[in-house]
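Q: I'm writing a short methods note and want an example of a predicted protein-small molecule complex. Could you take the sequence and the SMILES for zinc ion and return the bound structure as tokens? Please keep the output block clean; save any remarks for afterwards.
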Amino acid sequence: MALKDTTDHTAHPWPRCEFAMTIFSEGECQRPGEVQLNGSLLCVPHAELLRLEAREDTLLGTVFEMDKWLDNPNNRADQLHWQRVLGQRDEVLEQLRFNRTLVEVHRERDQTSQ
Ligand SMILES: [Zn+2]
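A: Understood, no commentary inside the block.
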């Protein structure tokens, strides 16, 4: 019986992306980890995905704050200012839509590559 090489179980030739361990349990990412993000080593596509999702959270928070401000009757006194914030809110919503599209593209690309 030939001696089997078992080194492939213990060590990878490169550090692997830790995306699966941090977010989803379904399957591990096979790509090399190249980017340090929030204490995890991630491949470039997954780091980008997490960056987009963090951006979405930030934008949602911004819209939430703007809604609160717009709903406050005291802030309606200054119509010009109020209208300006309403316009900025639309811009943030537009960014959110664009960001969401990018997230979807990343997710789909991720699924087809495995
Ligand atoms: Zn990955």
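A: Remarks, as requested: Helices lie at 7-10, 19-22, 44-71, 79-112. The chain has a mean pLDDT of 85.
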